[in-house]
């Protein structure tokens, strides 16, 4: 009997040690797609080290992803056992809204109260966190949380502008005049990745110069049939700008990083893109002064609250995921985001000493205070991101007229509404 008791004790001890060992091996998985040199990439890496220190008994596993990876395969990943515990995901009907409607995300309403996120963010900051049963933004449960803001602007080479006797334009006419002035000096004024996001962001910005409140709300709310007039103006303007040499015809095969390199190397005076470049530009541009101006539209700018931290339905550690979100939303890391050149969503502006971050946060507040965030052109329709990039390229290549462009994107848009 004693021998049996000793064996039982030994077995129990072994099982206990196995259990303890298993607990020590618990893994918490985080994914994001911000590049390491961006403000988010820099600050989240610091937060990651603090999170690891707070949880020495947990293996915190981080994986760097790309925007394109999750744009193309996010739904499939979330619907598998490969999903992480928390990840950065693109906001909007076609992305976060779609996977929320498919039941692939965790409802975060309880955490909003428990973690006090509703005390940090206002209801406007939650607009792109909420999706209804059809995946349409603006109402329903909170499925993700943004901890930064973003907007599209035109980055410009201050030294080049001063040498040419130009000031940042405040009207579309002044912008065209600046483009023409640089062209007359033998420079291609505008660097652009036509097959990437900057092409469709310029297109949408030009469309917003002809868009009122009703058009933007109907467009983003997938209210078919699409009124194509603002896009017709934008598409024809792009065709005209290519013809006049304001945009290089080589843009048809250019991606955003290549276009950005033309700007950062001082070869192009302007580059249309988003605030996600601020950290990279701050760390890489050493040979000239640079700034940004809001693309002159009556009200709306392409932009929004930032990408969302979402918790997959299959997450094994939702409480830890909520803790991670709270850490990146804390005053400490919000201030660090601004000081890294990013756009914090809930920072005390007095805590930001970096002039780039302070200016970006102030501009974002200026846009959001007038309800001028027009969101992104691909949001209303799943797969519209690729459609707009493809049709954009057709405009630059000359294989599509402005009329054909509008006809083809309208067909996809109207079909999506009918199939809801």
TrEMBL record:
- Highest rank taxon of the organism: Bacteria
Where do the TM regions start and end?
none
Q: Localized where?
A: Periplasm
Q: What is its main location?
A: periplasm
Which first-to-last residue range defines the signal peptide? Answer: 1-23
Instruction: Give the UniProt keywords, A-Z.
Output: Cell membrane, Lipoprotein, Membrane, Palmitate, Periplasm, Signal
Q: Name one Pfam family in it.
A: SBP_bac_1
Query: Which GO CC terms are listed, alphabetically?
Result: periplasmic space
Q: Does the keyword Signal apply?
A: yes
* Protein family per UniProt: Belongs to the bacterial solute-binding protein 1 family.
Enumerate the PANTHER family for this protein.
ARABINOSE-BINDING PROTEIN-RELATED, POLYGALACTURONAN_RHAMNOGALACTURONAN-BINDING PROTEIN YTCQ
Q: What is this protein called?
A: Sugar ABC transporter substrate-binding protein
Organism lineage reads as: Bacteria, Pseudomonadati, Pseudomonadota, Alphaproteobacteria, Hyphomicrobiales
């Amino acid at each position: 009997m004693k021998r049996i008791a000793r064996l039982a004790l030994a077995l129990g001890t072994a099982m206990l040690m196995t259990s303890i060992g298993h607990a020590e091996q618990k893994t918490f998985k985080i994914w994001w797609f911000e590049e390491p040199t961006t403000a988010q990439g820099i600050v989240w890496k610091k937060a990651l080290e603090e999170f690891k220190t707070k949880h020495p008994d947990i293996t915190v596993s981080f994986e760097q992803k790309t925007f394109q990876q999750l744009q193309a395969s996010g739904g499939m990943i979330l619907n598998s056992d490969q999903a992480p515990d928390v990840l950065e995901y693109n906001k909007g009907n076609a992305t976060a809204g779609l996977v929320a409607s498919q039941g692939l995300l965790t409802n975060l309403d309880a955490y909003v109260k428990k973690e006090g996120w509703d005390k940090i963010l206002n209801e406007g900051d939650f607009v792109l966190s909420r999706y209804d049963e059809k995946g349409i933004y603006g109402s329903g449960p909170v499925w993700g949380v943004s901890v930064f803001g973003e907007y599209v602007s035109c980055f410009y080479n201050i030294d080049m502008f001063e040498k040419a006797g130009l000031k940042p334009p405040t009207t579309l006419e002044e912008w065209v005049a600046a483009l023409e002035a640089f062209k007359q000096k033998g420079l291609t004024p505008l660097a652009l990745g036509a097959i990437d996001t900057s092409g469709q962001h310029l297109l949408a910005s030009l469309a917003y110069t002809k868009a009122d409140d009703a058009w933007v709300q109907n467009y983003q709310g997938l209210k078919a049939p699409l009124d194509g007039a603002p896009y017709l103006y934008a598409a024809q303007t792009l065709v005209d700008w290519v013809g006049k040499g304001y945009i290089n015809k080589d843009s048809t095969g250019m991606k955003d990083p290549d276009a950005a390199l033309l700007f950062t190397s001082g070869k192009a005076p302007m580059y249309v893109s988003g605030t996600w470049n601020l950290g990279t530009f701050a760390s890489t541009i050493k040979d000239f002064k640079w700034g940004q101006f809001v693309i002159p539209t009556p009200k709306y700018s392409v932009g929004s609250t930032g990408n969302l931290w979402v918790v997959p339905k299959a997450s094994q550690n939702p409480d830890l995921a909520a803790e991670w979100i709270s850490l990146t939303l804390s005053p400490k890391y919000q201030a660090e985001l601004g000081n890294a050149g990013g756009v914090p969503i809930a920072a005390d502006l007095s805590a930001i000493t970096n002039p780039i971050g302070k200016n970006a946060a102030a501009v974002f507040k200026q846009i959001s205070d007038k309800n001028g965030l027009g969101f992104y052109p691909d949001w209303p329709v799943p797969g519209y991101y690729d459609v707009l990039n493809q049709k954009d390229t057709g405009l630059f290549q000359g294989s599509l007229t402005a009329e054909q462009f509008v006809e083809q994107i309208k067909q996809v848009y109207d079909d999506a509404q009918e199939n809801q």
